[in-house]
Each structure stands twice: as C-alpha cells, then as structure tokens.
Design brief:
about 220 residues; alpha/beta; Rossmann fold; 7-stranded parallel sheet; 8 helices; about 35% helix; about 15% strand; globular
C-alpha cells in the first residue's frame, strides 16, 4: 500500500494515480542497509543542525533494523560529513546557513561521530561525503558493485535532504530502493511527510519498519 499522508489533497492523489505511480518494486536478492548522516550533528540539539526530537527515535528504529539484518550477513554502510578545514570542502553549504561557519561546532570532529545507539560494527563501511547524496564524489557505487548489492535500504537524516538525494541517485543507478518510514527523520514533519510521499510515488518503496523486518525474517 502506497504511503499517502493526509496532507496530500485528494486531487493531487488522483494525478499520481492516473500515472499508475507508486507501484511496489520489492526487494532483490542482495540487499544492503545504508545509514545516512546519523551523527551527533543531526541527532543532538546542541549542534546547529541537530534535532533530538526527530533523531533519537530514528536512531532507535535504525538500531532495531540493524539488529535484525546483521545475523543475515546483510552489508551495512554509513555516511557522514567530516570536520573539513577548508571552505572549498564545504562549498556552497557556506552560503545556505547550514552551520558550517568557521566558528561553528560543525567544524569540529565530535559533530561527525556516529550516534552512540548505532555505532558501526566490525566490517561495516563508513563513507565520508561533502554533499547531500551519498553517491556524489564518493566510492559508494563501486563498493556496492563489489558487494553485489541490488537493493539499497536507505535510512537516516534528513528525509528532505540527504536521504532524498541519496534515494534519487540510488534509483538513477538502478538499485531497488526501500525506505523504512520510522528509520528516516527530518526537522520538519511537513517536509518529512511530503518527501516520503514523493519518493514512494517515483523512486522507492516507502514501507513501515515492520514490513521491512518481516521481509528479513523470511530470509
């Protein structure tokens, strides 16, 4: 069943239905889980971009997912930013008020530590990125090819930004894409719902976490 929040008007729903959008793609034979930017910078209020009200429940849900997939040998990959020293490494983030000013906590290494509840384990991969998509300027696609991955389960923060950009690029690389609803979060509940709806219509299967867990339980 498609993800259609109440804030989407009926006439808009009809336009998507006319195009037969929102069909389920399903899982392939070799899934991997990608945890996008679940760092202190996004999950803790003390940082300029942090939102613990959204980040803490999201981290808990991701932990539940990781505990379920690890026994099956499912690859787990993480992304994060870094304490970039040069302005050129931050690029246009500096123009958009994203907390990357020279005196910001975002310039320090602590901001880019993965949240305690979901620290990477042995054998997990951590990819450093500098732009919204986990694919842009990183070796992620090459790593997924090496691992034989055909399905990417995308989790993390924020739904309307780095998660969405990563989902679109994963779709563009012809991966099957799954987004567990409880495993993504945003500072804005409105942006969260609208972007989940849009991703479900075009680029991904947006599913309740329970459905994703059930799939891995059948493996």
């Amino acid at each position: 069943m498609a993800y259609v929040p109440d804030i989407i008007p009926a006439e808009e729903r009809e336009r998507y239905a006319k195009g037969n959008m929102g069909k389920r793609v399903g899982f392939g034979a070799r899934p991997a889980v990608l945890v996008v930017d679940m760092t202190r910078a996004f999950t803790e209020d003390r940082f300029p971009l942090g939102c613990s009200a959204a980040g803490a429940p999201c981290a808990g849900a991701i932990r539940t997912l990781l505990d379920a997939v690890r026994p099956h040998g499912v690859p787990v990959l993480y992304t994060r930013y870094d304490a970039f020293a040069a302005d050129a490494e931050w690029g246009r983030w500096l123009d958009k008020g994203t907390g990357a000013e020279p005196d910001s906590l975002m310039r320090g290494p602590e901001a880019h530590e993965i949240a305690d509840a979901i620290k990477p384990g042995p054998g997990d991969v951590v990819v450093t990125k500098s732009k919204p998509s986990a694919f842009f300027g990183t070796p992620l696609a090459s790593m997924l090819t090496y691992l034989g991955v055909d399905t990417l389960v995308v989790t993390g923060m924020v739904t309307s930004g780095c998660v969405r950009a990563t989902v679109v690029d994963a779709f563009s690389h012809n991966y099957r894409v799954v987004v567990p609803i409880e495993c993504v979060a945003d500072r804005s509940a409105t942006s969260h719902q609208v972007n989940l709806f849009d991703m479900d219509m075009k680029y991904a299967d947006v599913l309740p976490l329970a459905d994703v867990l059930a799939h891995f339980g059948r493996r």
